[in-house]
């Protein structure tokens, strides 16, 4: 990770092989501007406002093409203090950006590599706990776009996104040779399916014996349904509104001229309602905390459109896909909240999750967010247990949990797998939640996210969180947060 911090009023920055001119106005909080007339440089892609200041995010470009993982950020507090995060990579000035390999050829190579890896992972049992190895659907492709890899092995590549049993993958295919340079999962996945109850039948009925029964209506599950008000609909007659847009769904979009969307759980449209309701609830809560720019948009969802037992957020298209294997994922609000947690972080920090530890932070935050959103409706039932209903389809022990936020794991338990290591991070956040209370903890945690780097480490993200606690609530709160991270051996 590359991280530089210093206060500045005007500066010209450059990286070997790049010709960049960047100037910043002296007024605190004023937007920086790229002033170079050349095609090489920085492109302002997002400006965010948090409780403590403004955040300006740039994408590194070379001859008009994006540089993979290249970023530059300026954080300006209300008091005028400036923090710079520079994650640019050197690109030779003479790098040829004309492609010899067609995008269709690159796409085929990427999909072949992704399918093979997904099948290997499934056979090894890493696709999800206690799941039998079964044949998974082959990878399908999204867009292929030209991009540049910087650094000592700089080259032109096709950036191909694919959807598979692992979620969404990014493959970088050499645009000169057609070889796959890198292929990795970029979505933040969660195995399992859930309920659109509040938050799910296991919790609301406090009954670990409930089972899916192949998506059938049952008396027990009917009693778990809750009538709710769907706020902020746009009046189109579909489940689209200020914060949620059910963009596509198995069986077609739910429609009602009277905006009445009442279905039993065996109807695929039931999951659409729960996606809308629970995400809308999340944004209303975030606004209540004082944040107005934390994924403050109509988040796109694709519901029950993936046959595998998986749900995932695709940062390349800003789309959350809810799968239907096992318990339908969107039947468990904690699955929805987990995936929405990834969308939150990607919105606040463009390209978040580029290192293993950043990926683990994403998984840990997603689990934590599912748990904290469950607090008002769970009546304290098995709160640290994540996705209780979804997990009934692939766990035999009680309570049924995909993961937990109170495992007691520390950095000594780190394995290098993002979901496993995410339990270290989620445990720290859960301890902060219990010590500071729900509202204070979530203000601190969300505020700190604005200062993360895309490839942040556990330690750096923890220090950002401690700093946010100090600035928002003082030294005592900062010490409480510090103690929580020390307990997990992060600090």
3D structure, described in words:
There is one protein chain. The protein is α+β, with helices and mostly antiparallel strands. The protein has 3 domains: 66 residues, no CATH class; 84 residues; 287 residues, Neutral Protease, domain 2 (Orthogonal Bundle), CATH 1.10.390. 31% of the residues lie in helices and 22% in strands. It is built from 10 helices and 17 strands. A hairpin with a 5-residue loop joins strand 9 and strand 10. Helix 5 crosses helix 6 and helix 9 runs antiparallel to helix 10. The chain is globular, with a radius of gyration of 23 Å. The two termini are 17 Å apart. The N terminus is likely disordered.
- Can you give the helix content as a percent range? 25-40%
- CATH topology term of the largest domain: Neutral Protease, domain 2
Number of helices: 10
Report the structural category.
Answer: alpha+beta
- Mean pLDDT, to the nearest integer, reads 85
Using only CA atoms, what is the Rg?
A: 23 Å
Low-confidence residue ranges: 1-39, 125-135, 189-195
Strand order within the widest beta sheet: 11-14-15-13-12
Which architecture of the largest domain would the CATH scheme give at its second level? Orthogonal Bundle
Total individual domains: 3
The major sheet is characterized as: 5 strands, mixed
Q: Sketch the topology as an H/E string, one letter per element.
A: EEEEEEHEEEEEHHEHEEEHHEEHHHH
What overall form do the CA principal axes indicate?
globular
Question: How would you summarize what this structure contains?
Answer:
The protein has 491 residues and is of the alpha+beta class. It is 31% helix and 22% strand.
